[in-house]
Amino acid sequence: MGRAVTVAACALNQWALDFDGNLRRILQSIEVAKSRGARYRLGPELEICGAAPAALTAAARSRRPVMHRNVRYNCRVIFLNGKILLIRPKITLANAGNYRELRWFTPWSKPRHVEEYFLPRIIQEVTGQETVPFGDAVLATKDTCLGTEICEELWAPNSPHIEMGLDGVEIFTNSSGSHHVLRKAHTRVDLVNSATAKNGGIYVLANQKGCDGDRLYYDGCAMISVNGDTVAQGSQFSLDDVEVLVATLDLEDVRSYRAEISSRNLAASKVCPYPRIKVNFALACSDDVAVPAYVPIQWRHHSPEEEISLGPACWLWDFLRRSKQAGFFLPLSGGIDSSATACIGYSMCYQVCLAVKNGNTEVLADARRIVNDETYIPEDPREFCRRIFTTCYMASENSTQETCNRAKLLAEQIGSYHINLNIDAAVKAVVGIFSMVTGRSPRFSAYGGSSRENLALQNVQARIRMVLAYLFAQLTLWTRGMPGGLLVLGSSNVDEGLRGYLTKYDCSSADINPIGGISKTDLKSFIQYCIENFQLTSLRSIMSAPPTAELEPLVDGQLSQTDEVDMGMTYAELSIYGKLRKIAKAGPYSMFCKLISIWKEICTPREVASKVKHFFRMYSINRHKMTTLTPAYHAENYSPDDNRFDLRPFLYNTTWSWQFRCIDKQVNAVFFYDFIFKSKGLS
User: Whose CA is closest to 340, among 188, 200, 193, 493?
Assistant: First the structure.
């Protein structure tokens, strides 16, 4: 009958400039797709290209983007049996947030237009073609019609699939490079399903997975949708470098669905047609009498706590194996942030052991190379953790025994190699140099010192911890008779970065930070998740303890310093400020106007004004710290990362004079009206 088509969507852990590895993963995915009966195989954006092996080799060797008439484009190249059918340039480029595609590529601005493209000689020698079609077209096979989207085009308000569907395209294919953000996956799924719900059709989405060599983690989620229903779902987080999703679908389901949508058919009768590239090939077999009926599935979304457990853990694994280091070093303070980082490290070890148990030979080979043992098999996460994960509690005279005990007990439960040390001698030596040179001895404010002295003495402790962290990261394995060095992990959260509540070049300065894009609120929920799912009972006391830097002297052996008192705001408030500042693009006055409504039950307008002013003063004073912030896993859309995501000045007029005057004027007006109403008995 010729109506059942088998298609494959791939999620590949590609790595920028790793030409050999990228080619190997592409070829593996092609073999898997063919072995499972697929007649069409789709790969993620910028994988190199989806090609037959010979043409693939040539494309990989050319190591160049597609240049058409001296203009560089981000393209999908569609092959069949060693011949190029179409080069389709990207129409809508991602140019906000983490993406700067316009820096590298030019969007194709000629809709429904095809030109002749002259192939480089290295490709001509393989395909035997001199020119191929280049532009915005669709593929007409013997039995159906296929259209192309590339990543951002799915998210655009005028997505190509709308007009393509009206013009008779039955299968939409999207090569995507979509990164992970907490609570984002459902949006991607909804976009795909809504594309086929309104217009009918089959939508095949492939996505990149893994660490991009930077702050992003691409979270797979390859999927196939039919007429608004998900019929195949790929994993969001896994250590498999190659994942192939295959589904067999009935083209008649699409045709029957569309025939019943009167509004769609009226619009289709007036649509401007796409150029069609005729392909002498059928996706369906002629003898497919027994056509399987598709069965919709309910997409299984991870909770935010599961996302934190899995996403950063996979990112850490990619970073560790590709950096060729021997493990991680974490300053473990016994607080929520460093404990959450330790739990992510443990989750990584858990995922490695699970992948090896499930037969992943690449993960096994990587683990053996990291621990320098060709016979090693990671079976117990705690045992593997002890080999590759070192934690260190760095005590001072301002530390409590409680935090020391919490750090030690957590290290025992996750299995890390744990070190206890005291930094007082180093602190006294550094302060002693200052006193010797200046003849002055700074004091904490608790002992009569000024705020400048107090802050400087806190910063000395914090910065010495950073120096010691790197010293121990380089030499700890040497002392244990093991080769290699350790990557230092930072553990400051996204809210502290936004507020600037960290010492520049302290132990928040590290090689990478798995929680730097995660809020304190989400980290607390993640800690509770680890108690319940990893049975890390030591985390209960960590959850109940007030967050503290432990940099000021104790009073009667007890803490005198807590984070939220130091900051002058709560972590919950910081999350709200961050979302309004970045996502809602609110300045001081706009934020004040929004918050007097949001907080009307708990704060007066004058109190809201005071909070907003304090936040913007602290944010602007400390913005310079973002320029040296440790590269962190991107997980929140209000991240203050200055390198790639949140590009803003780091020298502000911190008085915000005009903005604050506007706030004061509004507060006085509200107070005046409130006074008038109350005096007249109208309240």
Answer: 493
Structure tokens, 391: 């934690």
Q: Give the residue extent of every domain in the chain.
A: 4-278, 304-422+467-547+556-565, 568-682
374-393: pLDDT as tens digits? 999 999 999 999 999 999 99
The pTM for the full model equals 0.93
Task: Say if residue 58's pLDDT is above 70.
Answer: no
Alpha helices by DSSP H, 115-155: 121-127, 152-155
Q: What share of the chain is helix, strand, coil (3-state, %, to 5)?
A: 45, 15, 40
Whole-angstrom distance between the N-terminal and C-terminal Cα of the chain? 77
Catalytic status, residue 333: yes
Answer yes or no: is pLDDT of 64 > 60: no
H or E stretch covering 204? strand 202-211
Structure tokens at 184: 């984002």
Out of 45, 496, 550, 636, the active site residue is 45
Task: Say yes or no: domain 304-422+467-547+556-565 is CATH 3.40.50.620.
Answer: yes
**Which residue among the candidates 333, 339, 491, 575 is catalytic per the annotation?**
333
What does DSSP assign to residue 513?
B
Do residues 136 and 163 lie in contact, with contact meaning Cβ atoms separated by under 8 Å?
Answer: no
Summarize pLDDT for 9-44 with one digit per residue, the tens: 999 999 988 888 998 999 999 999 999 999 999 999
The answer to whether 344 touches 533, Cβ cutoff 8 Å, is no
Taken in order 443, 446, 451, 456, the sign of the CA dihedral is positive
- Does the pLDDT value for residue 60 go beyond 50? no
Catalytic residue at 262? no
pLDDT, the chain, mean = 92
Closest CA to 87 of 39, 57, 61, 55: 55
Task: Note the pLDDT of residue 605.
Answer: 94
Is the dihedral angle over the CA atoms 58, 59, 64, 67 positive or is it negative? Answer: positive
> Which entry of 10, 29, 49, 90 is annotated as an active-site residue?
90
Predicted local confidence at residue 1, as pLDDT: 56
Query: 4-278 and 304-422+467-547+556-565 share one CATH topology?
Result: no
Q: What are the backbone dihedrals phi and psi of residue 116, each rounded to the nearest 5 degrees, phi first?
A: -90, 130
How far, in Å, CA of 70 to CA of 468, rounded? 52
Structure tokens at 203: 């939508």
Proportion of the chain above pLDDT 90, given as a percent: 82
The 3-state DSSP class for residue 263 equals: helix
Q: Above 90 in pLDDT, residue 556?
A: no
pLDDT digits (tens, 9 = 90+) for 569-610: 999 999 999 999 999 999 999 999 999 999 999 999 999 999
90 is catalytic: yes
**607, two tokens:** 């109190």
The catalytic residue among 49, 151, 343, 507 is 151
CATH code of domain 4-278? 3.60.110.10
Q: Pull the structure tokens for residue 675.
A: 């006074």
